Amino acid sequence: MSAEAALNLDFEVGMYRPPSEGGSHSLLVRVTRNCPWNRCEFCAMYKTEKFTLRTPAEVKRDIDNVAAICRELSGPARDPKHITREAALQLLERNPWLNSHHGFSMVFNWLASGGKTAFLQDGNSLIMKTDPLVDILQHLRRTFPSLERVTTYARSRTLAQKSLEELTAIRRAGLDRLHVGLETGDDALLKTVKKGVNGEGHIKGGRKAMQAGFQLSEYWMPGLGGKEMSDNHARHTAQVLNEINPHYIRSRPFFPAPGTPLSDRYDSGEFTRQSPREQLVELKIMMESLNFTSRVCFDHAGNYWRNRQGGLLFSQSYEGYKFPEEKPEVLRLIEEGLEVN
Question: Containing domain of residue 299, as a range?
Fold first, then answer.
């Protein structure tokens, strides 16, 4: 019998997670494969892949196999203080197949950093029926009691379609934070990029998530509408976010991914890409229009605008700037950026 079969350590890991939920600090648990919508014209993430649901048995087996690796590395208590390079090398010597398993280093780093957070992959975990998802979450929490936060991607449309009772059950089972791709609040632009939801749908889904008790991160895309749709993009996005009042909004500036339909539209001249300065003008309009108690974050490399010293204009902290208290500071930084970009 092979070492892999003897220890039964195999598990799936997807490719994508938000910057604030990955790196060395999150356990990646694959609940679904790829994206059930997969029609957004700006996105290249899953275009060549087919969406499939994984069964609770498959996911729970993965969780158990990760737990087995943890026991091998640190004993039954899974105490991060006991994680050593020597233990990892011994495990790899007994199971050389793990050298080529891209999830092994993720598990090692997650455990070494305290085993505190997990992220459910892939693009919309809440598309799974409620009872199976609750079953998976409860098993994850039982298996890894060190977890302080469990998060996932979700679509506004899916949140709007789930009942409040279902969302509350999922929250109580141990899912803490949702990451939602708002992109824009402008109905015309949402239709153009084939997001599959309108502004009212974003509001309904976001409010329901908040009511169920989730921490909510909403992502928007500066520059998505080009020069032609910039003003409506900024103002309508602010209106939708004001209605939701999520815990976080996170800026992910638009970049035309090669091979996507929206990239082709920009190449053909249907949309005109904004300059860095024009994006800051759009950002100023939106920030001035925000009236909520959220945190505004620029925690992505795409927020590349520069300050007078040549450094990054905004902090890339995952916690961002608290509104309304730090709104004047964000507007001051935008004015500085407009002078030099």
Answer: 155-161+172-341
